[in-house]
Amino acid sequence: MNRREFTKLGLLAGAAGISGIPLGITRAAGQTRGGTLNTIIQPEPPILVTALNQQQPTLTLGGKIYESLLRYDFDLKPLPGLAQSWEVSPDKLTYTFKLFPNITFHDGTPLTSEDVVFSITKILMENHARARNTFSRLEKAEAPDPLTVVFKLKTPFAPFLTAFDCTTAPIVPKHIYEGTDYRKNPANAKAIGSGPFKLKEWVRGSHVHLVRHEGYYRPNEPVLDEIIYRVIPDSASRSVALEQGTVQLTQWTDVELFEVPRLSKLPHLTMTTKGYEFFAPHTWLEMNNRIAPMNDKRFRQAVMYAIDRKALLARVYFGLGKVSTGPVSSKTKFYEKDVKAYDFSPEKAKALLDEMGLKPGPDGKRVSIPYLVPPYGETHQRASEFLRQSLARVGIDLQLQGIDVAGWAEKFSNWDFSMTSTTVYQFGDPALGVSRSYVSTNIRKGILFSNTCGYSNPEVDRLFEEAAVATSDDKRQEHYSALQKIMVEEVPVAWLLEIDYPNFMDKRLKNVVTTAIGVHDTFGTVSFG
Question: Which of 5, 145, 394, 443 has the CB geometry, 3.0–4.6 Å to 451, for a possible disulfide?
């Protein structure tokens, strides 16, 4: 569908449907309950089961289907999720959660503490890099009664209460997954969770249709009748859909950042960058430290010097963010600003490459390196081209390779890459969102968003562990400051930007961004005002 055709389609919003799927707002005047929210999922996720895949589209959509024990306010303080209350023992080793009564999965089966224990100790430990890094600290998990879950830790773990959002610890049905090959379970196509919305249909290449879970345990939720996530690969068509009202909400990279200034002026829309506090998206250029020349820190330092990150922010990301300085985002606790600076300096980059013996050939090229272009929209394509041009100036020839979402995830997670770019979340605490990318214990082939770069430093491992178990914030800061200084010197990856993603929404929409997990939240209270 080209832009002109999609514009015509947008004019029909609210008045007609295609293939039985409603367009626009289908809500009677004055109605406070009901209605259809049309939004976008881009790119189309490979699977909807968040326990098995943690790519952003899966998490955004899956947050309506799967829940966890807690949610978090904008200050990252815990709020009730599936758990209505929780207690922490004085020694910080025992955490007791009380579930809400009458929670059911979408197939009608009651959700109990046994499902929580199974999800945390079995399926997540085997398939979720971040969850494994956190829950490997458990001594045991118990279900003394159907509504009580008790976690006992081997040692104190300061951010443990921050580890139960829907993206980190989604609860799946034990009766469906126990004793099966998780990734080949036929129920994956049905995506059976306990959230306010359940899967009605998924037409590949077209849409994912969610409808109200009538057995939802929270009174009067969800407010909406249904949510339709539309697959619209073309960026211009996505913008037109928002502009014309065919969709009422966009998130993450649905709208290319170069469209933000224009769309921000439209009178029927509002834009916010709130709702990403928990994630603090951190974008970097990933280098496979296992292979030459990326296995030499001088090369990695040269890459940092060669990229004008301020220009990248201004020209490609239109100022939506700030230049990053290391592995910990400035939006996250325990950030250390006093680290080695890599100001834009092609001359320093060339000197380091010369020192390595990587001399330029007659064509000016020192080395050619394959680069997997992240398949997440035009902004990533433009950023990849910016990086290619930047590194070319110092003799590093990036060979851009296009790939789809599933292929990118497979190659990246299996270490079948030289360079790529990725955006990784911080999750409110370095022990949750940062350490997983760098500790040697999390080098796990086949698991996305683990330590895929292959970085290993015993001192960094030690500091991450001591910071995680320290009970004093001052002591944690001391450890995190020390490891940030070491890592910024060694440059396991080339940190680029802290991104502020825009959420555009129709002004009639209410309660879209109410917590620090933003559009990943359940949408149980979202309505048309």
Answer: 443
